[in-house]
Design goal:
The chain contains 5 helices and no strands. Helix 2 (about 20-35) packs antiparallel against helix 3 and helix 2 packs across helix 5. The longest helix is centred in the N-terminal third of the chain and has 14 residues, at about 20-35. It has one domain (about 10-85). With about 90 residues, the protein is mainly alpha-helical. The protein binds iron/sulfur cluster (2 copies). One iron/sulfur cluster binds near residues 15, 59 and 73.
């Protein structure tokens, strides 16, 4: 997905759940492009420790209002949750 990693979505919208949106998207990209299974452990141990999980998104839409790429962040986070959280 064309997330540029600009981080506007987490700096400007201040996600109420503290979800590291661009980092979760990068993990999903790595997982899908390279079948990088380490990304699953990285998701659990680094990206969502002390931060919200993709499934905790309350769909407030604040992040999407500031994303220059107009990504459907809420929908993409569902994909992240389906990929990394279904194995719990
Ligand atoms: S829609 Fe989800 S990811 Fe976006 S700011 Fe709201 S809680 Fe955070
Ligand atoms: S604002 Fe959009 S392009 Fe920028 S990091 Fe967030 S999801 Fe990626």
């Amino acid at each position: 997905m064309p997330c540029t990693g600009c981080r506007y979505c987490i700096e400007e919208s201040q996600c109420p759940k503290g979800i590291l949106i661009p980092d979760l998207f990068a993990a999903l990209n790595a997982h899908e492009a390279f079948h990088n299974w380490n990304s699953a452990f990285y998701y659990e141990d680094v990206l969502t420790t002390g931060h919200g999980k993709a499934s905790e998104c309350i769909k407030c839409g604040k992040c999407e209002r500031v994303c220059p790429q107009h990504l459907e962040i809420r929908k993409l986070l569902e994909q992240v949750a389906g990929t990394f959280e279904s194995r719990e």
